[in-house]
Fold this sequence. Notes:
- The protein is mainly alpha-helical.
- It folds into 2 domains: 48 residues; 242 residues, MetI-like fold.
- 74% of the residues lie in helices and 1% in strands.
- It has 11 helices and 2 strands; from the N terminus they run αββαααααααααα.
- It has a two-stranded antiparallel sheet.
- A hairpin with a 2-residue loop joins strand 1 and strand 2.
- Helix 2 runs parallel beside helix 5 and helix 10 packs antiparallel against helix 11.
- It is globular.
- The termini are far apart.
- 31% of the residues are buried.
Amino acid sequence: MATISNSFPSTRPRRFREYIFKAMSLGALVFVIGPSIWLIADVVVRAVPHWRWSVLTSVPLGVGGGLENAILGTLVIMVGVLLIAGTIGVLTGIHFAELQRPRRNGKAGGDFLRTATEVMAGFPSIVLGYVGYIALCVGLHWGFSLLPALIVLSIMVTPYIAKSTESALRQVPTNYREGAEALGMATGYALRKVVIKSALPGIVTGLLIALAIAVGETAPLLYTAGITNNLPSASLIHQPIAYLTYYVWTDYNQPIKATQYLSFDAALILIVLVLVLLVSSRLLVNRTQRYTEGRR
């Protein structure tokens, strides 16, 4: 009984530390989410009272008009980045996590490629935009156009996709691979049907982050995409393309109220696009997980 009674006092400091840790965690969460909620609420409060549905179906005209050209241009850029950076980034992550052979000294191979990928992730976006302008727009005489913008944005976000894909694949339990091998599955088939499906939530999250980064960039697009009031065309070069962040950045400080309202509308549309991406990705992940669990 003495031993049991002596154990009770020791639990109080432990519980106190647990409460302190939970309070600090909650405070950190509020510190991160609070400013984001405040910014989103500020955009909504500024944009909704002056919202016009014609913004979605008209192009800029003088100090007014709409954002149809910028909305379509942003969607085209998102699709292009998803195809280029998504393909390269996911394949790079698969190579790092699954196909990379270890060295004799025990260190993983491909250190140079991994280091190069991490260095690429640290480059300032405006520097990449300037290099893209010099090399693509001027050097190759492509001018302000869609293809230089897609190349620069893809270079910028590919490291994030590769890293998230590698992390997601490494979190798949080893017994999944061993079970697939024991059943006689080929390496490629097991990778597609077992490993990648199990890592799909992490891969989709990485793609979502990459698209969010691409949608929110301005500096690289100023150097490569230019700007135009026309709708996107099928031309990849010699034709500028519009995007929403240009109007958020340019029209906010204009002295004319109509252009300021257009800036708020562009910011609100960007927020809606990100929310749609988030909801769509979660629905895709949940459906994939249910399908995988049903097949087991």
